[in-house]
Amino acid sequence: MRIRNLETFVKVAELESFHAAAKVLKATQPTVSSRVAALEADLGVSLFRRDQGGTTLTSRGRQLLPYAQRLVGINAEMKAQLKQDLNEAGNVRIGIADTLAQLWVGPLLKTWRSEFPHVEFEVVIDISDNLLQQISRHELDMVLMVVHPESDVLLSEHLCSYPQVWMASNEYVQEKNLASEPLNLWQLSRCSVLSFPRNTQPWHYLDNLFSIMAEDRPMLHTCSSVNHLMNLTEQGLGISLLPEPLAAPLLEQNKLTILHTSDEVSVPNIDFCCGWRVDDERLLPKLLAAAARKVIEQPELAFEA
Questions:
Q1: Could you report the average pLDDT of every consecutive run of 10 residues in the chain (305 residues)?
Q2: Which domains, and CATH codes, for the chain?
Q3: What is the pTM of this model?
Q4: What is the C-alpha separation between 180 and 174, in angstroms, rounded?
Q5: I want to staple 5 with a disulfide (CB 3.0 to 4.6 A). Which of 35, 205, 279, 299 is the partner?
């Protein structure tokens, strides 16, 4: 059901004339008639009765009118608010988690700039915990980050979810004799473990995973840059748990290999969200978030923008 057809129906009903509605809408009378006919086809009812006395609503038309007027009013209000948001936006500050930036910052910016040409974008790339602190201090307008369910300052919507895989260089696999699979927790603990920074979601998972090892718990060597984390893994400094899409190019180049693990080493997906402040009533962050979801769910759209 198209909003334009509802707008045309409301105008014909209010003016009681297809001809008058066409003049107000700056459309031809056949166009107005076609829109009303399309709406009637969508609903499966007749909305107007036309005779020598003029144009009047049928009983179904009278029933629809108040709903249509509300929907048309909401649409007009949304457009006005969006126009105001875009005029006031100027510079929009968006924080993107390092992992997502590695995968999507180019396509996201390309799509956002195409859909919102009057907005100037400032992108901050950081770990999710830092992004959450920045948006809490009103230093960012929107974030794309690891899901943080405990936040009371953020409204968020699911963005994407990626499996994580244990990775090591071929040389490190040979050095530590990791070729026998699947690897158990004790075998993993014999390795140097490379991780995202302390207190991030991936770090907490690893810390909890190895907590039962007591004095045999491996040290977690952290790095704030996902690019450097991959480089350190590639250089054979240890094993790391990486989102699968990041590891895929290195696997294709035979620079890293996947370490398969036993059932006792269950690896959760890493979930990302779009978020904006609870006190931000603008439509723009929600529209940017919707555009981001389309790019990530249908990446070909980014290259058509």
A1: 87 91 89 92 91 86 92 81 62 93 94 87 93 94 86 87 93 88 89 90 91 87 91 94 90 90 89 91 84 82 47
A2: 3-87 (1.10.10.10), 90-161+271-303 (3.40.190.10), 164-268 (3.40.190.10)
A3: 0.69
A4: 10
A5: 35
Can you tell me which residue has the tokens 């949304």?
78
Instruction: Give the DSSP letter string of 94-123.
Output: EEEEHHHHHHHHHHHHHHHHHH-TT-EEEE
Instruction: Spell out the residues 6+ positions from residue 173 whose beta carbon is closer than 8 angstroms to its own.
Output: 179, 257, 259
Distance CA 165, CA 267 (A): 8
R_g of the chain computed on alpha carbons:
28
Distance CA 178, CA 286 (A): 46
**Which burial class, exposed, middle or buried, applies to 301 when counting CB atoms under 10 A from its CB (0-12, 13-18, 19+)?**
middle
* H/E element, 86: helix 59-89
**CA 26 – CA 260 distance, rounded (Å):** 66
Residue 272 per-residue DSSP state: E
β-pairing, 239-243 vs 91-97, is unpaired
